[in-house]
Specification:
2 copies of one chain form a homodimer. The first copy, chain A, is α+β, with helices and mostly antiparallel strands. In chain A, 54% of the residues lie in helices and 13% in strands. Chain A has a 3-stranded antiparallel β-sheet with strand order 1-3-2. In chain A, a hairpin with a 2-residue loop joins strand 2 and strand 3. Chain A is globular, with a radius of gyration of 18 Å. The relative contact order of chain A is 0.12. Chains A and B meet through helix 1, helix 2, helix 3 and helix 5 of A and helix 1, helix 2, helix 3 and helix 5 of B. Chain A binds a DNA duplex (30 and 30 nucleotides) through helix 4.
Amino acid sequence: MPRLNKAEPEKSGREMPPEELLQDLGDLFKVFGDTTRIRIMYALYEGEMSVCAISELLGMTQPAISHQLKTLKAANLVAGRRQGKTIFYYLSDEHVKSIIAAGYEHLTE
Amino acid sequence: MPRLNKAEPEKSGREMPPEELLQDLGDLFKVFGDTTRIRIMYALYEGEMSVCAISELLGMTQPAISHQLKTLKAANLVAGRRQGKTIFYYLSDEHVKSIIAAGYEHLTE
DNA sequence: TGAACATATGAATAATTGTTCATATGATAA
DNA sequence: TTATCATATGAACAATTATTCATATGTTCA
């Protein structure tokens, strides 16, 4: 395992941010790197939706959506609000939109 | 396969962008979703570097770096400039920085 | 031309991950 | 409580992917 940011600098003299941050960044983008999760986030763009409604909209099984919502929730990208039997999920903050927007701009130049 | 954006709207009445765009977005973020590629992009943040220099900086084999550079190049995130035997890679545009910055902000809130 | 260096490529392996199926948990209403 | 609806979870399978090793391509210099 390479260790950057160590006492002795690399030959290039270039500094790197802490490995942990780079790892976290990779993990975060990994969450965005799946079409199903992107579609879920897009679905929640306009407002909260229940798990059932999302699975119907995307034409996928409920467990598949639940698994992905769990991943999104662990990354603090969505949150859930319980109302009786159903749970409504929504984007947890504006970062989701700005990250997707940044990617969108790259694609459309 | 679910088809959104079709003639008959979903029951929720919610519209989705073209599937192809969502796919492209997922593919783009997938490229950012790997620690090695993130580290390469960070290394190039300050300026161009040769393949050899990158592999030394990251403590990884040259073929491993070449494979990842190919992925980054295919996504138009880096580009190469040949000078004699060596090829210097650099970030191809500012989008790389803005995407990483957007992710960074989410992590550090 | 041939040797040496830098980078790219292909095949194989190992690890990660998304989906499905079956089932469990939790909440509501009768 | 029992039945029903909504969601979560766990195991298994299939598919994707990052890395390594060996080798090929391409460039420079003698």
